[in-house]
Amino acid sequence: MADRGELAAWLRLTESLGAGPVRRLLAMAGSPEAVFELPAAALEQVLSPRQRQALAAPPEHLAELMVQAEAWLAEAGHGLLALGDADYPAPLLATADPPLLLWLQGRRELLGTPSLAIVGSRNPTAQGGDNARAFARALAAAGYTIVSGLALGVDAAAHEGALDAGGATIAVVGTGLDQVYPRRNEELAARLLAAGGLIVSEYSLGTPVMQANFPRRNRIIAGLSRGCLVVEAAVQSGSLITARLAVEAGREVFAIPGSIHSPQSRGCHALIRQGAKLVESAEDVLEELPAPGTPRAPKAPTEPAPEPPHGQQALLDAMGFDPVSLDALMARCGWPAAELSAALLELELEGRVARLAGQLYQRRGLG
């Protein structure tokens, strides 16, 4: 952002009009400040009467927003990119609807790095969360910046996996950067920034949580990335919006298959039927998108999981990887209910089995 006048012009435009009209005005005027010098005849060519009225007077909150923005931008690690700036990310610029402004907190150089999006359900199965972390760790270790949306569930697990690998990650959010949503991810956002990550928003400071903004931010997640991996998603999931936007932007789309009985797998299965690549490991992704640079070895777990004691492996083998009821496990193993429940509890405490809704159990990981 060049100066205070340019900042004021951008804020006035974005707070008064939608992106489409602003782009048309910029094409005519050449700069945000020059828009306000266009003659009435020129404005009539591209704006409706209501839009011309909105542009005629500054928004009531513009002065307050200017004070807030200048104070925020004065802090270390804070920045603002405008459409047309020399360092505006080229992959995003090439999409159909690049944002007019990008508010940045953290290491802005990450916008120029090879990136991969990992998205999925806000309420994943335990295995879905594990998969998101494992893929993010491996892909970050291979040199990709992991992009996601800082939401609960798969998004958070993807950011965590990248950080666990000592890799880079970008969070694209749907509120102003003066707040963190959801609040439960405040610690994750702080960890991300401390590790040299980046948080991005197209929304002005003070923009509250509005549901319509979250599907819109998905186009930025897709646009910044070379490819999009969907870990778990229901048929109506917002992750499928991200995948569709990735396809429209010419990006690769990958999906992890799951149980035919799980609603969280149906969105991924639909993507696979539509042409997304079925992946079972990070290597499957890297076959399509080779790793940039020299791969880094992922960090070893602080506390390696112990091998299952004798007898537990037989139970894990009997479970398979689909959700299963206690009665079905009793029929498969022939164990008494009390012994089976005790073994399942022990495996659950070790993190090898997850208890699901409806009195179901599911094996986690491959061990």
From TrEMBL:
SUPFAM superfamilies: MCP/YpsA-like. This is DNA-processing protein DprA. It comes from the Bacteria. Pfam families: DNA_processg_A, WHD_DprA. The gene is dprA. NCBIfam families: dprA (TIGR00732). Residues 289-314 are annotated as: Disordered. Residues 300-359 form the DprA winged helix domain. PANTHER family: PROTEIN SMF. Residues 81-289 form the Smf/DprA SLOG domain. The lineage of its organism: Bacteria, Pseudomonadati, Pseudomonadota, Betaproteobacteria, Burkholderiales. Belongs to the DprA/Smf family. Gene3D superfamilies: 3.40.50.450, Winged helix-like DNA-binding domain superfamily/Winged helix DNA-binding domain.
